[in-house]
Write a structure and sequence with these properties.
About 60% of the residues lie in helices and about 0% in strands. With about 170 residues, it is mainly α.
Length: about 170
């Protein structure tokens, strides 16, 4: 499709509502704000979706953050991630952890949630386990406001990567 502004609201939300994990409100808000004529690229649509995300309340943004699964967590082991999350975590090898690595991820996820009251979020596509573990350790030294901002920035990156899989 060369012009996403030609989609009606329902079709737009059906197509792009899952780009932000379990948060179709972002696509709804972007559509309601007006999709620019000629928008057909991942980068173009990403800018409009991110503007909708940033215009959302802190409560909605926090709900979006909390909609994300733990990396290599319980939902992944139970096969209950979204298709996108499953592919992304697998691309980083998180579906093939040793018992020791899985234990370390669980320990870091738990420490992060205890400190920040939200899951650790990182755009893991194309990243290694070591890079992810290093980011965990570094980000555990941050303050809550810094991590809230970092989580949103990582979510924006995840959305861009997902859109690039969907659009040119």
């Amino acid at each position: 499709m060369s012009d996403l502004s030609a989609l009606d609201r329902q079709a737009f939300v059906e197509r792009f509502g899952g780009v932000f994990e379990h948060s179709p409100w972002v696509a709804e808000a972007a559509y309601d704000a007006g999709i620019a004529a000629g928008t057909a690229t991942a980068d173009g649509l990403h800018g409009q979706l991110v503007a909708a995300l940033r215009a959302g309340t802190e409560e909605r943004q926090r709900a979006l953050i909390n909609a994300h699964p733990d990396l290599a967590g319980r939902l992944a082991r139970a096969g209950q991630l979204t298709a996108d999350s499953t592919k992304e975590q697998a691309s980083a090898g998180l579906d093939q952890l040793t018992d020791a690595e899985r234990s370390l991820f669980t320990e870091l996820n738990d420490a992060y949630k205890a400190k920040f009251a939200m899951p650790f979020i990182m755009a893991v596509k194309g990243r290694s386990k070591d890079e992810i573990l290093a980011a965990f350790r570094t980000r555990l030294t941050h303050d809550p406001a810094q991590e809230f901002a970092t989580a949103l920035a990582e979510i924006e990156r995840i959305a861009l990567l997902r859109l690039k899989d969907m659009l040119p």
